[in-house]
Amino acid sequence: xxxxxxxxxxxxxxxxxxxxxxxxxxxxxxxxxxxxxxxxxxxxxxxxxxxxxxxxxxxxxxxxxxxxxxxxxxxxxxxxxxxxxxxxxxxxxxxxxxxxxxxxxxxxxxxxxxxxxxxxxxxxxxxxxxxxxxxxxxxxxxxxxxxxxxxxxxxxxxxxxxxxxxxxxxxxxxxxxxxxxxxxxxxxxxxxxxxxxxxxxxxxxxxxxxxxxxxxxxxxxxxxxxxxxxxxxxxxxxxxxxxxxxxxxxxxxxxxxxxxxxxxxxxxxxxxxxxx
Length: 276
Hints:
Elements: H1 2-18, H2 21-39, H3 41-47, H4 51-75, H5 80-85, H6 88-92, H7 98-130, H8 136-165, H9 170-198, H10 205-215, H11 217-229, H12 238-242, H13 250-274
Helix pairs in contact: 1-7, 2-4, 2-7, 4-7, 4-8, 4-9, 4-11, 7-8, 7-13, 8-9, 8-11, 8-13, 11-13
């Protein structure tokens, strides 16, 4: 079983390299992180805070937008694309189960995303460290950011597989992926903010609002990283919420893993429904 999963994963990794997915995603992540590092000297000076920590705090907010988008663009044609190309039945006619097929895709895409994050953010950490503008604590902050970003990417990969298995055309799956990104990363927070401003959930907000944030892997990722950094002095908004959570920040990581596991299981069931 493991051998078949790794075979599919290696195939997806080769496809990612051939399509320059690794290069493109790495370029995007490195470009934004280097820009934030170069612009981060302004807040670091007055606050007396390690410049690497300032950069990580900014990247924690930026990653909420970039990582889910990259993950969804990697995953949207995992099933629908195979159906579109007429290769799904061929793949599943070999001694390969539906779960092995999807898990192999997931491992391959996860490797692509992990390489991009490690190289893209690692270059910025190396630059700051070599220029003498970072400390060991800052390196640990970068390592935590990379690790939690891969978990966030895993959750959105699984969401992408569910979307891909729900349709039979890659173009439709791509449209659904963009809609999902907008809904979960942009509109979800706006909806919560609108409810709070309107006072519709005023009496329940102390208990409902943190739970609502936990249910969204993007918000859970941001809550954990900003709480771990103690970043209320560096960035506004969500950082203040992160510092006053009614639960341990580690619960946010558990929420991301739970979403990833649940949606991945759902995607496997949907693939079995498509091809009994």
